[in-house]
Amino acid sequence: MRAQKNPRASGLSVKLGAAIFILFLAFLTAVGVRGVSVQEPAVPAAQKPAAPEARVQTKDSPATKPEPPAQPIPYSHKKHLALGLKCQQCHINPEPGDRMTFPATSKCMACHVTISRDKPPIQKLAEFAKSNQPIPWVRVYVLSSWVYWNHRSHLEAKMTCEMCHGQVEEMEVMTKVSNVTSMAGCIDCHRKNDASTGCQYCHADK
Hints:
Blueprint: H1 7-36, H2 77-82, H3 87-90, H4 105-112, H5 120-130, H6 151-156, H7 161-165, H8 183-192, H9 200-203
């Protein structure tokens, strides 16, 4: 005899199958909707901050010159050099040759004892000379204390004053016009003149 099917069991099976089918359809619908309409906005790539615009120095836009330091007495190289004075007449290079010195007040007064002696700057010059005090000139070019520098070795290498200090004969006020007191300036000049750029030449214990 064939076993009779249980109608209750058959009904449960149909309901269970229908429930699974409905859940499957709901799953497909959810996946389809998410895949089509629920799109996450694209995240823009992180942008690097814009680099500051480089300043290009051209012949038409020269580098800004620094303000010259205030001096105790106004002095015009232009005026004095026009009279025929030479650099070495006022700026001598004593041993060991590292510096070019300033002239003594007595040297200045050799001329100004009669020339422009009534002008306030010359009267101030005369006061320095009378008290035997040097004029406290403020240096325009200053090297760091850990850098060794020698004017004489550069003069012997046929370097001229204008190569580092510019057209001084045209200056009413002495102004810094080059970067020769910086490491970059020194290295650049040495390379252009086929001189050594070894560290020991400027930083050795002399």
